[in-house]
Structure formats: structure tokens, C-alpha cells
Specification:
Distance between the termini: 8 Å
Number of helices: 8
Number of strands: 11
Largest sheet: 7 strands, mixed
Shape: globular
Order of helices and strands: EEEHEHHHEEEHHHHEEEE
Structural class: alpha+beta
Strand content: 25-35%
């Protein structure tokens, strides 16, 4: 194909204790138009990241497209990319993973191919874990893991009663920074707690949303990273005291609340947070010819 449009969803990772393992695709999208041109590289960015991200070969969509192209034998003479970004950057909503998935999907689309098992591998290599990338690629709820140097994931259908609400603060947070706050070891009791709650989260999200509050509890990573986003963690604790399944989304500082009706309790101070009610994306990345 000479040109494709790629629509890629945001994602929320961890869902409490499912650190680097669980991801949920969200109905907030970046849209990229990729076109083969005779020579060179032209990149324009509108929306989130405009004027901030690079527009040369170091742009993440370009890098992912090139990497996927090398994997499938697709080397265009020139490229034009138009990126319309709606996913906030550095807020814990998988913007980097979405960009990587968009680039990979664009390469496959321009080559006239459907994405295959190598698509996740290429996209996840940019992050070092597959939870966000798998959610953006596959949609729905994903369980991700590694086998040696291979990234794997399975997709599951979230329960229809789940309505995510995102509380997005103005400040940003970088995964590379927040990961440095995590200890090399955690108590055995906390590891056992995390194992049970992550397993319960899979059941709660897919079949028993009435169990979402205990399923999204965490003792593995959130408290250790409180210094990076104290207001977010404080809000998580307040919402959980009101009986809502709240957790920090990915590396933060966004807070995700898994509700039944999209409603938050009255009287909770949400100053400094932008509230967005989003659908669960059930399709994942979509590619169409232009």
C-alpha cells in the first residue's frame, strides 16, 4: 500500500499488583498517517507532544517502523508521517508503547501484511516489557510475560460492566525515574500478596467486577514510588476508602478508577486532575488503506 492510517489506543498497565504483566486498552487514540514518498523523511506532529518530540529518525514511530520493516523485509525509499496525538505523554497511559505499536503496524500495513507474532516482539523491545504494547496491539485486557528474550501476551475480554475513569494530573512522570525508586527485593509476604491479587484481577476484570476493589490492591510497587506522585497515591487511597477500585496507572501519575457507572463519590477533592470517562478499547490497533 502507498499510504495507511493507523489508529492506536492508549493503555493502563499494572491494574494494582499486576506489575509489568497486566494491561487494559482504553478508548483514547493516536492517529498516524504513513505514506511512502520517493525519498527522505517528513514528520509532522499535532496534539500531544507537538513542538516537544523530535521529527527526525529518532522519532519513536519512525524507529519502530524501521525496526519492523527490517524484520519483515520492508524498506521504503522515503516516508511521510502525520501524527495526531491524543494520548498524554509521560502520564502513565502508554503513549510510548502506543507510538511503537503505531510504527510497527504502519510498517506491516504499508507492506500489505497483517500483524503477526513478531509485531509484539518488535514493539515491546522498545519498552523492555509487553503490558502496554500488548494492550495497544490487541485491545481488551492482556496478560503479558517473557520467555527468555521473547515477549508473549494473551488477550482476554473485559466484563461489559466495567467503566474506566481516568484522573490525569498536569504534571508528568517518567518510567525511567519511577523504576529507580523500586527496591531490588521485597518481603516474601508482599510478593505473595501481589501474586494473589494479580491473579484475582484477571478474574475480576473478565468475570467478577464486584471483586475489583480487593483485586486492585497493591503492596508491590505503588507505595515505593509515592515520592514521585504523592498527590496521585493520596487520591488512590481516598477513593479506595470510598469503595472504588482505584490504582495508579502504569508509571503514573494518572489514577485509573474501574467503576460500574463512571461516577465518582461527591466530596472528593479532584483539584489538579482532569477527569475523563473512557471506554475499554476491545479492538486494539487498526490499520486502513488511504
Amino acid at each position: 500500500m502507498s499510504a495507511v492510517e493507523v489508529r492506536v489506543p492508549a493503555s493502563s498497565a499494572n491494574l494494582g499488583s499486576g506489575f509489568d504483566a497486566l494491561g487494559l486498552a482504553l478508548g483514547l487514540y493516536d492517529v498516524i498517517e504513513a505514506r511512502i514518498i520517493p525519498r527522505g523523511l517528513e514528520v509532522t506532529v499535532d496534539g500531544e507532544g507537538a513542538g516537544e518530540v523530535t521529527t527526525d529518525e529518532s522519532h519513536l514511530v519512525v524507529r519502530a517502523l524501521r525496526a519492523a520493516g527490517e524484520r519483515i523485509g520492508f524498506r521504503p525509499p522515503g516516508l511521510e508521517l502525520r501524527c495526531r496525538n491524543a494520548i498524554p505523554h509521560s502520564r502513565g497511559l502508554g503513549s510510548s508503547a502506543a507510538a511503537a505499536v503505531a510504527g510497527v503496524a504502519a510498517a506491516y500495513g504499508l507492506a500489505g501484511m497483517e500483524t503477526d507474532e513478531h509485531a509484539l516482539q518488535v514493539a515491546a523491545e522498545f519498552e523492555g516489557h509487553a503490558d502496554n504494547a500488548a494492550a495497544s496491539l490487541l485491545g481488551g485486557l492482556v496478560v503479558a510475560w517473557t520467555e527468555g528474550d521473547r515477549y508473549r501476551a494473551v488477550r482476554l475480554d473485559p466484563h461489559s460492566a466495567i467503566q474506566p475513569v481516568l484522573l490525569i494530573p498536569g504534571e508528568s512522570s517518567r518510567t525511567s525515574v519511577t523504576r529507580q525508586l523500586l527496591p531490588d527485593r521485597v518481603p516474601h509476604a508482599d510478593a505473595a500478596f501481589a501474586t494473589g491479587r494479580a491473579a484475582l484481577a484477571v478474574h475480576a476484570v473478565t468475570a467478577r467486577p464486584d471483586l475489583l476493589l480487593p483485586a486492585t490492591a497493591d503492596r508491590l510497587h505503588q507505595d515505593y514510588r509515592e515520592a514521585a506522585w504523592p498527590a496521585s497515591l493520596r487520591l488512590v487511597k481516598i477513593l479506595r476508602e470510598h469503595g472504588l477500585a482505584a490504582a495508579v496507572s502504569g508509571a503514573g501519575p494518572t489514577v485509573m478508577v474501574l467503576t460500574a457507572d463512571g461516577k465518582l463519590p461527591d466530596g472528593v477533592d479532584l483539584a489538579g486532575f482532569d477527569t475523563r470517562e473512557l471506554a475499554v478499547d476491545r479492538v486494539g490497533v487498526q490499520v486502513r488503506a488511504l
